[in-house]
Amino acid sequence: MPALPRTLATLICVLVLFAVSASAATYTVNSKDDLDDGVCNAAHCSLREAINAANANVGSDFIVFNIDTFNISSGVATIVLTDELPAITGALTIDGYTQKPCANNPAPCSKQNTQAAE
Known about the structure:
The protein has a three-stranded parallel β-sheet, with helices on one face. Helix 2 (47-56) links the parallel strand 1 and strand 2. The chain is built from two helices and three strands; from the N terminus they run H-E-H-E-E. The chain is an alpha/beta fold. The protein has one domain (24-118). It is globular, with a radius of gyration of 19 Å.
């Protein structure tokens, strides 16, 4: 195979591998603390850790919520920050409506909207 087609074939393979690795990821916040041990996983993921993980990933990402401990009477899970959150450096959707008992509401300012994350 001549050098130019071989180089072009190598470049195409590299681009395909890059495109595959640049996929969207979903990070689930499952803790209302503000700890950051550098890992966002099923055992522990704070909002700070989720943002840092999304910033480290190439591609559009999603942050969703599944915090088990929230105030039963108000239905609110309050995340108390100890410092300013990191800047968001890429395409990122943070969806607070994923926290139970919250539900996507077409009228977000109405009384029927249940606030579940603050």
